[in-house]
Amino acid sequence: MDPLVRQWREDTPGCANQIHFNNAGSGLMPRAVLDAIVGHLNREANLGGYESADDADGAVAEAYAHLAKVLGAQPRNVALVENSTVAFFQALSAFDFQRGDVIVTTRNDYISNQLAYLSLVQRHGVEVRRAADLASGGADPQSVRELLRDARVRLLAVTWVPTNSGLMQPVAALGEAAEAAGVPYLVDGCQAVGQIPVDVAKLRCDFFSGTARKFLRGPRGTGFLYVSDRALKRGDFPLYIDMRGADWVSADNFAPAPDARRFENWEFAYSLVLGLGEAARYALEVGVERGGRRARDLAAMLRGKLRELPGIRVLDRGNELAAIVTLEVTGWDATELSKLLRARGINSSASLRAYAVIDMDEKRAASALRLSPHYYNTEEEIERVVETLRAVTAGGQAAS
Known about the structure:
15 helices, four-stranded antiparallel β-sheet, alpha/beta, 42% helix
């Protein structure tokens, strides 16, 4: 085994317990992340929550700095919130949508984002327009450019890597189109951060949302939002701004914080913030380019082997694919298949039609098994997964 891979596995207690191919759901935390979280919880238990927060000022500042470096940003442009969906919604709420306004998005945006757009349709009369896809998969940049020509377009919102497939959307090209059209640009990078190098300046985005728990390998229950200087200068702030995000300066007036903190909430899970910071530090140490390339290479290897098995249909489409492999197994519901794999020591997840109605209907799939390796996984683990699925498709018992 490669010495680096061995070290990554030694740093990850969970690697000893199972084959973890559910990093698109929640990656295994390195021991250093766990230590940061538990250490702060112990301080809260012994010293008090507020006092421990005061004592952690320096470590919290480092967490912002590490995360900002992962994003190619500055700490002043980073807001920490409860999860990626909260981050996305905080950004979405900064726009005062009126009847007839248009949101341009894709056919593969994340379910919670799609639901939010539809809520805006019902509540405010907003119109949602989805760009056409390329024949190979993924949003067609020319279709986006054409949609952005309408003066009523208020926002372009795109999910970089959808939850239900390995598709990687051309977010940099779409950012160029948004900038040329003068339309604000919101990117959901939930599945991208930690497996794909991020440079928010190159994306030309106004907002970028993400989470700690997936490929960044941080704890559940914390997310973040990048807010560009352009958005801050525009005066963007969330609809429901609280005492962390603004000062109450007179009975009828408030002043938003000068930086991205205006998108934060006052109540912080400080232990999770420190875990997020440690996860970002660890990702920088590994190298997102190096780790992400290995993860995507392992996923490509897995796809190739699965395509050779009878009864399996690999569902991923796109010119570039992420470290998420989705497949349909004849005669199996993905939820039940995921449970079977779990009983065999293999973690996976199921993606259902309701999670991605447009894409799943086009693929004529009711559910999909999702396998998402990371850089700490091994080629031997891929072989074990393939052999287990081979036994399933052969109608026998899975390998033990």
